[in-house]
Hints:
Blueprint: E1 12-20, E2 31-39, H1 45-55, E3 75-78, E4 81-84, E5 97-101, E6 108-110, E7 113-114, H2 117-125, H3 145-155, H4 162-166, H5 179-189, H6 218-222, H7 229-248
Parallel strand pairs: 1-5
Antiparallel strand pairs: 1-2, 3-4, 3-5, 6-7
Helix pairs in contact: 2-5, 3-5, 5-7
Amino acid sequence: MTTPMALLKADSTYTFKIFRYDSKTPEKEPSFSTYQVDVVPGMSVLSALLAIRDEMDGGLSFRCSCRSAVCGSCAMAMNGKIELACRTQVASLGSDLIILEPLPNFEIIKDLVVDMIPFWAKYDQIKPWLIRKTLPVGTEIRQSEEERNRIDQFVHCILCAACYGACPVPSRDPEYLGPAALAKLERFVLDSRDERSPSALEAVNNEKGVWGCDTLFKCIEACPKDVRPTDAIVGLRKSLVKHKFKKLLGMVKDED
Length: 256
């Protein structure tokens, strides 16, 4: 039987400082609101936020949905580190002062809610779906265990945008596609069922794509699912170089 959180004895009281801003009232300067929360053992940051909203400040805005580290909607900065609020226990942050801020590199809508539209637009640019030029024989396109293993790492991406928030490149180049989109592209490039031509990678063969990455591994540190987006970017670079050499040797021709 599950014991209601309200009946558990509080472990200690934590101070939460939460970023506040409303894009509908831009004349009002961003600020921080402070709350005292009695935290029970095992309490997540998301549970603390829900308690603050329900019991102290109904106007506090943040995103959440699955509460199971699947939807990725509750990504935010916690004491300077980007994580999912639903899977991060308050006590694990190592301080009784918890500072919560919205994801960097995004326009703020309100408080901890950011505008994800540019992120999704960049994701759409890489055509994140299987591209087929031939019809499958039968009703399925089968994969071997080895073929499936090649894409597993990147399939785990939940598009939480934690990697994009941690990446230093978008702050200086807003047109940069970002680690999440490039990781998803590598997922389809490596998929044995996908038939996009190598020349299709030319769309990311520039500073807005794979060559814009600083290779600082900040995206790897931030990813809650161990996707390792830098691995994907390096893989795409290798694919582009390999295709270029094959073209020089006359081994392949460009395709649409």
